[in-house]
Amino acid sequence: MGDKKNILIAEDSRLQTEQLTAILVREGYVVTAAKDGLEGLYLLMNLRPDLIISDVWMPNMNGYEFCRAVKDDAKLRDIPVVLLTSLSDTGYIAQGLAAGADYYLTKPYNESLLLSTVASILSNPEMFTADNGQSLLEIKAKNKIIKASVSPQKILNFLFSTYENLLFQNRSIIKTKNELRTVNNTLEERIKEKTRSLGMEIEQRKNAQETLKRTLGGIVAALSTAVEMRDPYTAGHQLRVSRLGCAIAKKLGLPEEQIEGIEVMGFLHDLGKIIVPAEILSKPSKLTDYEFHFIKAHAQAGYDILKGIEFPWPVASAVVQHHERLDGSGYPSGLTGDKIILEAKILAVADVIESMASHRPYRPAMGIEKALGEVTQNMGILYDQNVVNSSLSLFQEKGFCF
User: Which of 74, 121, 142, 200 is 20 to 30 Å from 128 by CA-CA measure?
Assistant: First the structure.
């Protein structure tokens, strides 16, 4: 593992501290424990850990106060802070953001998720603490508005942690259903007893599953917004590409589940632009070759951000391929024909039509007719023929408009 990484734990429960310490030491980390945030600050006078993991509810100084004190200190603020909290109240998550936390995990935590999170943060800490422009975020929780000044990167970190934690809960639903199926093969009396208890648990977990679905929608919208915070000139672009992509998919007769995936892909197809300097995104003149190289990198960057998330659709693949072209002239991999997935072919056409029809910093809007002319002229060469024909039908026969 090379040089051992140091982790500071702030936890008032002795049992929780021992369990968490044992897990981390087993993986080769050096662990120092504090019984609350106040003792944690005292230890930080002589200790420079690579990561801080803090419980929220502690005596003397709770996790939010401890995190805020760390982030207010110029010598300590670049140390990543992970809060251990609960999903039962969204206000907890909002308060964590407001306190400056970089990530959070639910309690009781999943050991594998804990270790993968710790490894990800320690391997690339600047990804979790990078400050690439603060924005004021207002979160409503229990009729209370919580304000937090955060960077787009920190928003991404918290959104991903929300999705990962809820995904873990969703797996528990599947496990519970499997348990119920097994119980149904046992004695009638045990069936009745276990069915009652598991029925209640399934009902609770169904609510968690609905929360997962709503959270996924919120994550997708927030990620799209995070990109538009960096590129105001293309505000609404991802939404319009998503809508046109779904309309094309319906016209092609694709199943509803696949159309839902295309909606998500449309929202996220330009997520990688979060790595592109804002001055390049909003440049009012023609880009240099060097600057265009930055723009072209956004497809791969979007894939790198999304590849670790377990979407029920090939979101990452569609994002990295949406600038590929049938004849191999696209980027980043120069894929041809059937090597490009259908979802990416749909996004490619929707992206070109919306981009040409809309205003850009370096040119005025060209209009729908010119956009449709582009995809028609290159139908079967750059763009999929069925996708283009469906697009033409939408605009010319069905009256589709942005």
Answer: 142
Per-residue pLDDT averaged across 102-118, rounded? Answer: 83
Report the distance separating Cα 265 and Cα 174, nearest Å. Answer: 26
CA distance 56 to 86: 9
Cα separation, 253 vs 235, whole angstroms: 29
- What amino acid is encoded at 188 in this protein? E
The neighbouring-strand residues paired with 364 are none
Angle of CA points 20, 165, 221, to nearest 5° = 145
Instruction: Specify the pTM.
Output: 0.57
Percent share of the chain, pLDDT over 70: 74
Extract long-range pairs of 256-260: CB within 8 Å, 24+ residues apart: 257/312, 257/313, 258/313, 258/343, 260/313
Centroid of chain to Cα 384: 29
CA gap 292, 270 in Å, rounded: 15
CA distance 256 to 73: 51
What is the average pLDDT score of the chain? 83
Helical (H) or strand (E) element with 16: helix 14-26
Tokens (6 digits) for 83: 């809060």
Domain parsing of the chain, residue ranges: 6-132, 151-230, 231-396
Residue 138 has pLDDT above 60, yes or no: no
The residue type at 94: A
pLDDT exceeds cutoff 70 at 212: no
The pair of three-digit structure tokens given for residue 219, joined into one six-digit string: 């994550």
113 vs 151 pLDDT, higher one = 113
pLDDT digits (tens, 9 = 90+) for 330-361: 999 999 999 999 999 999 999 999 999 988 77
Report the CATH architecture of 231-396.
Answer: Orthogonal Bundle (1.10)
Task: Evaluate whether 132 touches 152 at the Cβ level (below 8 Å).
Answer: yes
Residue with tokens 């999705």: 163
Q: Label residue 59 exposed, middle or buried (CB < 10 Å: 0-12, 13-18, 19+).
A: exposed
CATH of 6-132, one of 1.20.210.10, 3.40.50.2300, 3.40.50.11290, 3.90.420.10: 3.40.50.2300
108: cis peptide before it, omega within 30°? yes
How far is CA 72 from each of CA 69, 261, 297, 355, rounded to the nearest angstrom? 5, 41, 34, 42
d(CA 254, CA 267): 19
Q: What DSSP string runs through 238-306?
A: HHHHHHHHHHHHHHTT--HHHHHHHHHHHHHTTGGGGGS-HHHHT-SSPPPHHHHHHHHTHHHHHHHHH
